[in-house]
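Treating backbone geometry as a discrete language has practical consequences that deserve illustration. Part of our work consisted of pairing the sequence of a single chain with a tokenised description of its backbone. What the numbers capture is local backbone geometry rather than side-chain detail. For completeness, the protein is quoted in full, as a sequence line and a line of structure tokens:
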Amino acid sequence: MSLRDFGVLTDGRPVREVTIANERLTARFLTLGARINGLNFDGFEGLTPALSMAEAEAALYCGSIVGPVMNRLSGAKASLDGTILRFDANEGPNLLHSGDAGFERKVWDIAHITETAVTFTLELEPDAFPGHRKVAVTYRLEGADLVLEIAAATDAPTLMNMGFHPFWTVSRQGRDGHELQIRSSHFLPMDSANIPTGEVLEVAGTELDYLVARKAEDGIDHCFVLSDAREVAPCVTLRSDDLILDILTDAPAVHVFTGMAFGIAVEPEIHPDAPNNADFPSIRLGPGETFRQTTVHRFSRR
């Protein structure tokens, strides 16, 4: 385990780097966005991007914990207990990854650290989203597994759909050189602004059918629906010539994005734009409740 000063943001906030390791994995994290910033497995380096301070500030979503509401809210608004919350749009007329209130923009506290685990925390005042909120994220190395546990609580009704936004490159060739398998038979069709239409369609007969592993194409930017009764279960597998990454989660959906050159994003989540679609799972979090999500990233050799 090591802890060092990493750099300073343009607004003067200092950022630190934490490195944890076991016999198979070495992972580095930044307090900016509680983000992963490099991972090695069994001597294979560069399985996720390792960015400089300037690069990390420019690419806020890369490897970060995104929230309180990841993905998009249509019209930069959301319904909560009969009230319409309105936000400053940051992607056309819509809100992406919570805009200026995003967790990826925060410098997190390091609450606990051991040789093989680190916990980051945030305490948030009401902002564009209601409630005093407490958020904790723990990364833990268990053999060849990188385990991520997320928890959040609030003292007033709010919206919570936070999650991990890593980019993986088990091929060490950016997004190229991967076979992709998505263990989902249904997806959410999107409109031209990447907002779900509200439908849930079968992948069969579409270009999004990855039930059988095949080459990862560049045009994927979609949410795939997983089982309603969630336990931690496989959802996505990435394979290169010599490595395999199996991703398991208890989230009800997973967003897969192949549109960046430096890797393939696999983001467990609740359905995007859920507050504006009555048929989607709720992302309301109330006092006395806890938002939880667990995701396992399991590495192996082919």
